């Protein structure tokens, strides 16, 4: 099911809407005051609705089913990019309290549901962007750059947060935002947990790695829950700080063994392109590409610097783990340096292993990472 409660909005909307989503974290703990100020408490029609993340000064990202007029396919409804009216929304930032105490309050000017939030995509593309009435004073949290992919590989412990219930059958949310840590799982694991079909009774939706990722412990116990919809899945960035990778979408129950939470994949793929088309500033940029680095020569040269009277009897050159070339005999004895054709990418490792006439081995390792080169040399028997 989508991570939401069924609540009444208004008499005007009651005949059109499936109800307002709401938010929660199971197995977490209360967020201390002052932390996670960019997490938004979203209300719809005056009732608690969803969680969201401030991704630009005037934009909050939440779930597609939190913005769609027609709801979620995992609830037996037909998703569509047709939005709820902006006047139905209010949200609060910079507070951990569900009451909004001490927070920064906003109304919404515009609701933009992902244009591909349609039945043919199942429960995928589950993202909505809410334009605020004015820029927030809070520092936004941007979506991580594609180059930060290593920060959200399977096994990485991520952080999820949201307002709302702390158990699947709870009738009301706690008074304070909850936070928990859950490991990101592989796409293969997620696909096995949600193999296909759209029946709420069976698995609540099928996993699509293009627009989803999942996170949770195999034994269950910790998870997002009803209405955490749109709340952030956060990771530590390689250069320090935290970044936004995904947004809570759906799951089979809450914290069940073998049924991890499923999240809209923001950091790459179709959803990232949608966000870029509406709010480009929500995306963290990639660091400068290799093209902006000092240009490497087409052939790289590695001096051997052998002891006087010593010659190389065998030379092996590797690119990563792959053997490129091997020299032996008279040709190797005349070598003063080893030349290697430069690979046509900016991140690579060249290893040169030299066996000498003194029955010793010289190893030169040269690592190129973007604009940086690190060369090491060691000698042994």
Proportion of residues in extended strands: 35-45%
CATH class value of the largest domain: Mainly Beta
Radius of gyration: 26 Å
- CATH architecture assignment of the largest domain: Beta Barrel
N/C terminus separation: 63 Å
Biggest β-sheet strands, sense, barrel: 7 strands, antiparallel
Principal-axis shape: elongated
What is the tally of helical segments?
Answer: 4
Number of self-contained structural domains? 2
Detailed description of the structure:
The protein has 381 residues and is mainly beta. It folds into two domains: 272 residues, Trypsin-like serine proteases (Thrombin, subunit H), CATH 2.40.10.10; 91 residues, Immunoglobulin-like. The chain has four helices and 22 strands. The protein has a seven-stranded antiparallel beta sheet with strand order 2-10-9-13-14-15-11, with no helix packed on it. A six-stranded antiparallel β-barrel has the order 3-4-5-8-7-6. Strand 13 and strand 14 form a beta hairpin. About 7% of the residues have low confidence.
